[in-house]
Amino acid sequence: MRERVIKTIKPAAILLAAGFAYYIFHELTGLSLFCPIYRFLGLYCPGCGVSRMCIHLLHGEIKASFSSNCAVFCMLPIGLAIWIAHAYRYIRYGETKYTRFENIVLWTMIGLLVIFGIARNIWKIDILIP
After folding, report:
1. Mean residue pLDDT across the chain
2. Cβ-contact 46, 116 below 8 angstroms
3. CA distance 6 to 11
């Protein structure tokens, strides 16, 4: 069980450390990552604005965070809940497969992100533009 805890926590810790390092870099320099899809094609991908969304969340600016990427903002709690439930089952019982419900939710979220990515390039509505 100890090995499963390490296998679960290690990638999450690396991701959090990278995010924190990016946050510190951004706060000290004011520089941000750019989206290569937007830079080279002029199209907004479903992930455009996620960095700003996370920075606004860390500052407690909920409205600005929502405005940066409303789709990911709304899906974040659901995705975290699924990840926590899956991590718990893996650590406790060694299960590696997602449940049928989790698969349905995850594929629905992917579909919604694809639709969101298309919609934000077709309709130039403020809520869709990062």
Report:
1. 93
2. yes
3. 9
Q: SS in 3 state form for the chain?
A: CHHHHHHHHHHHHHHHHHHHHHHHHHHHHCCCCCCHHHHHHCCCCCCCCHHHHHHHHHCCCHHHHHHHCHHHHHHHHHHHHHHHHHHHHHHHHCCCCCCHHHHHHHHHHHHHHHHHHHHHHHCCCCCCCC
Per-residue pLDDT of the chain (130 residues; tens, 9 = 90+): 889 999 999 999 999 999 999 999 999 998 988 889 999 999 999 999 999 999 999 999 999 999 999 999 999 999 999 999 999 999 999 999 999 999 999 999 999 999 999 999 998 788 888 8
Q: Measured between alpha carbons, how far is residue 52 from residues 9, 63, 73, 88 in Å?
A: 25, 12, 11, 30
Q: Which residue has the tokens 């969304």?
A: 53
Q: Which residue has the tokens 């990278």?
A: 18
Q: What is the pLDDT of residues 48-77, one digit of tens each?
A: 999 999 999 999 999 999 999 999 999 999
